[in-house]
Amino acid sequence: MGLHTFLASQALEPHYCVMIESTRTRVADTRIASLPGVAGARARIASLPIAAAARARIASLLSAVVAAIAVLACDDPYAAFLRNVPTTPSEVTLYDYATSRLEDPPAFDIVGGRSARIDQTLNWDFLFQISDGTPELAPFSAATDTVTDAGLQASSESFGAILEAPETGYTVAQPVPVQAGDVLIARSRVDRTRVVVCNQYAKIEIIRVDMAAGTITFSYLINPNCGDTVLEAGQRGSL
Asked: Which is the most buried residue in 25, 41, 81, 161, by most CB within 10 A?
């Protein structure tokens, strides 16, 4: 097991935690050296066919990286590998898939955080359509014959007031009618391109719907972390 995998896959025992002086300039617990991943990494460094000075520099860098990760791991073993929800919402415009030009994207990919053309990829979670004069966001399973976890859930709260996404209660197989001012919570498909398969969560606010142009514009915040339901700007959960 490699060092990165070891630290990311389990919580460090208390005696591995790093004690830092108030100046936070000196690592005071040297027992990190006994971690399985660290010992293996140092052994591999020692066998490298390079000059002794170079090996010493690499070993020193390894120790610094391990110490930094372990400091964070004492409180949250995954902290070094998580990112915060962005502090500023992004904005995107989608086009009615039935009437738009081929080059105009009708779908949105939560995992990638971008609009998507459905003729180029199946990696998207919902699309915009106008059905019998009603603007709708249709989850993947409502627009195709394939069932995924991608879903939408209308919220009565304001965009800024939504701090966490629910794990259940999403509309998956039916389009969701929308209008300007609506706020929704979105769940992505299970992303199977990662080592750990999971959903991602986002919150959406409809800014405007232009029926004549066949477009919808909304702002959004996506939690970039696997399975993390926190949607408060600038924050993240503890997995």
From this structure: 41
